[in-house]
Every structure is written in structure tokens, then in C-alpha cells.
Amino acid sequence: MRIPDFVEKRWDRVKKWWDRLPKLPRKWRIVRNLALAPALAVLVLGLLEWPALSPYRAFQRLEGAYLLTPSRLVLQVERGRTAAYLTEGDSWVTVGSVETYNDAGKPLNIDKNVAILHQVLPKEGIVVVLLPAKNGSDGAVAAVWGGPEEGVSGTLELDLKGISSSHPWTGRVPGLETFTAQAERREDGWFIFQFVPHDGHLENTSCAMEMLLARGPFFSTFGDLEQPYRLTLTDSQGNTVAQQSGTTPPDQRLQKW
Amino acid sequence: MKSIMGMYSWLSIATSGIRFGPDQEAVRDELREHIEDKAADLMRIFPDIPEEEAGQRALAAMGDAWELKKELARVHSPWLGYLWRLTQVLVWGLLALSLIAALGSGASLLEGQAYRWEEARKARAVGRALYEDGTPDWEGERLAVYEADETARLGRAVISVSRGARWREPEGDCLYLRLRITWDRPWEVNPMTVSCLFAEDDLGNTYEINTARAFREGWNWYQLDLALEGVPLSARELRVHHELRDGLDLAVDLTREVVP
Prior knowledge:
Strand content of chain B: 25-35%
Largest sheet of chain A: 4 strands, antiparallel
Number of strands of chain A: 11
Helix content of chain A: 10-25%
Radius of gyration of chain A: 27 Å
Low-confidence stretches of chain A: none
Mean pLDDT of chain B: 91
Number of strands of chain B: 10
CATH architecture of the largest domain in chain B: Sandwich
Largest interface: A-B, 41 and 43 residues
Number of domains of chain A: 2
Radius of gyration of chain B: 38 Å
Distance between the termini of chain A: 53 Å
Oligomer: heterodimer
Number of helices of chain A: 5
Order of helices and strands of chain A: HHHEEEEEEEEEHHEE
Structural class of chain A: alpha+beta
Largest sheet of chain B: 6 strands, antiparallel
Structural class of chain B: alpha+beta
CATH topology of the largest domain in chain B: Immunoglobulin-like
Number of domains of chain B: 2
Shape of chain B: rod-shaped
Strand order of the largest sheet of chain B: 6-7-3-2-1-10
């Protein structure tokens, strides 16, 4: 295709005008470009609404937003595009999750990490929490803090109600199932309990554990993290030193606005 | 024709030591112009000389191409050129990215900014009415204005109370406090954080922080004129705490009355 004469003439005129403009020496052009680059980078990041570059950073950012810093990472559980974090501060315990999704509707679709703080609890007595992501065997992960120092081993029983109403496609779910896990106290004072789903369910029946958080923490119902439990802590001789039963704390769902 | 070919081959050799392409081209053009000028001069001085011979003489006067190559290679370090090119790519790349990002979220960002400007304008007017001599656009009577300049650090933020005023409104007495949270990191700004704060007076009453007359947002701060309902006149001090953690104890003296 031939470029029309008037376009070519205009283009030549622009080129001449451009050539007549005073030019900076190369060193100053480098300085100018280096000064421009951070300003443009800030503009790009601002337009992208300051994306968090990793799930953990998104979680830390949310902790900072709610003034829950400094904190220490106690446990991280990752499953697919979901990551759960358990952190502790001087006087509190935080349980959060980050869901990574791709905003395909936008021209520059980088992964977005959306964080939620599910629980922020005071470090008082014995704290029992259920993490909002499951382990490799599709089992729940629970963490316990506190109790008498001589309690070195723990047994945690979880009573899971079958969450069948929101999952009609998964078949029948038993009404109530009890799961048991054991753990030793770690050096940092925490017990981490790893649960596994039950085997041997009838055909067309799912395990209640598999149904827990089945839609991920972001879309799961508020009640998913709120489950009845019984905890027993024993000393090195096997004697019971503490017992506690109750319901794991409700989902507070603190998010950035 | 021979002299032209000779010139181009001479130019190629002489400039081949310059490793940065645009520089090589610029020097090549400069040398070519120089040779052509020299040949033109010769033809002007000696009108009988053929063009080809003038070209050859001009080229010969330029010296040995291989020697010049070494000299030019020594003078023209490529690194400055590479660095310049790199910064050019960086700037153009970032410009392209900002354009793409603007296409995606520019409109909503502009809308958000317009909303913030409007809220800031309202907050200024409310602030003047609450603590100074402005006219309120709501029903009420100012009873007292308190001097406050309290600041506390919590996590990566600073919480401050800079103004206080007591109002009598149709719904009852109300204590207004101008509270600001300034985050060290602008990406942590979160208006919802104030819902995790609560106030407690010296009489033991506690107040949830969930109502405000106005709010403003800056690049790293969020400010609101809190409305605490039912704070008794006998309360002499108010303390702001964080509901979810220890470490915040921001005291506001309710005895330091000032003239608005």
C-alpha cells in the first residue's frame, strides 16, 4: 500500500521539527530515563492497584492494614490456589487465607491475591483453630496454642457435620463424623494436628472431611471453620494435664476494603 | 563508481571497531560527508579533475582505514550506548504497560478519585462546622470544643486524635473526635480498620466506633470524624483501644476546652 503524499510530507515536517529540537547529551538522556522509570513504575503499580506479588505478601499486607504487626509465621498450608496462614503476635493469634485468581477481564491480567483474616484471637488460655486450607490428603489442619507447659502431646477430636445441602452433586454426606489426630508440642509452643479423611464410605457417600472447605475459604460458608472439638493434653508420662471442649472460633472475615 | 565502492569499503573498515550500532552509523555518516566535502573542494580547486579521481584523492587523504578503526574503537566505548538503549526500552516498556493498565482500570480509578475529592470537600466543611465557626448542615448545637493532640504508634501505623467537640443533637448528646490512621506503607490503607477500634471513658463505659460524620482518605492515611453517642458530660477522659490486640492506649483529655 502506498503512503499518500500529504502523509509523507507531514511526516517529513515532523521529523525535521524533531531534529531541530535541542538534544540532551547521552549521559543526561540516561539520567532523564532513569528518573522517569521509577515514576512510570509507580504509575503502573498505582493503576494496577498495588498488586501483592505473592500470597504471603498479600496476607502480610492485610495484617498491616488491621495493625496486626509485627507477627511471626507459625504455619503455612498451601493447596492449589489457596494458601492458609497461621501467625502470632505478642498478644494475638491470626488465621488467614489467600486465594489467588486471574482477572482475565482486564487487559493486564496478572494474578490477584485476595486475602482474608478469618480469626484474630487473644492469646489467652488454650486457643484451638481450624486452618482455612486442607493438607495434601484432603484433611483439615488444626492448631492449638497454650495449656500447661508439661502438656507435651495432644489429641484433638473434631466432630464434622456433613455439609451436604450446598453440594448436591457430591452425593450423600454422613450427618456427623468424628476425626481424631495427635500431635507433639513444637518448640514454639504450638501443636499442629493433621487430619485425614475416613476410608470405607459407602458408594455415593462422601466423607464429611472432604466436604469441609470444599469450595475454598473464599466461597465457603461462614460456618465451615466453626466445628465442635475435644482436646486432651498429656504430659510425657501420658497423664492428662488439660482437657477442653468447645467449638472452634467463628469466621470473622476481615478484608481490605 | 569505483571510488564510491572504495569509499564504502573504507568506511566499513574504519567504523567496524565501533560496537554500538547507532554510533557506528552516525560516525559513518559524518566521515562520508567529510569525504564528499573534500572531493567537492578538490573539484572546485581543480575543475579539470575527474570526479572519480577527486573521490580517490579525498579518500587517500583520510589515511589508513585500519589505523582509524583502532582509534575509533578506543574512543567509542559501547557501554554508555547500551545503557542508553536499555533505559529507552525500560521507559517505553513502562509507558506501554501504563497505557494497558489505564485501559483496564483507569476509568474506575478516576471515578474513585472523583468520589474521594467530593468526600474531602464535604469533610472540610463538616470539620469547620464541628470544631470551628462553620455552619452545620444538620440540626445541633455545639456545647464544647476540646484541644487534643494525641498520637500513638501501633504496628506499622500511627493513630492520632487531633480534635474533639461535644454536640447536642435531636437524637441526643454526641462526642465527635477527629481520628486519623497513617500507615507507613500506602498499600496498607484500609478504612475498615477503624471498626477494630473502640473507646472507653474513665467511668468504665465502652463505645463502638462505627459511626462518623465525615471521612477523608489520603495516599497513606484515613481520617474520620467519629461520632460517639451517649458519652456523659461527667466523663473526663476517653481512651481508644484496639479490639483485637494489646498495645493501643490513646488517651483524649475531655477537660481541655478551647474557644472554637
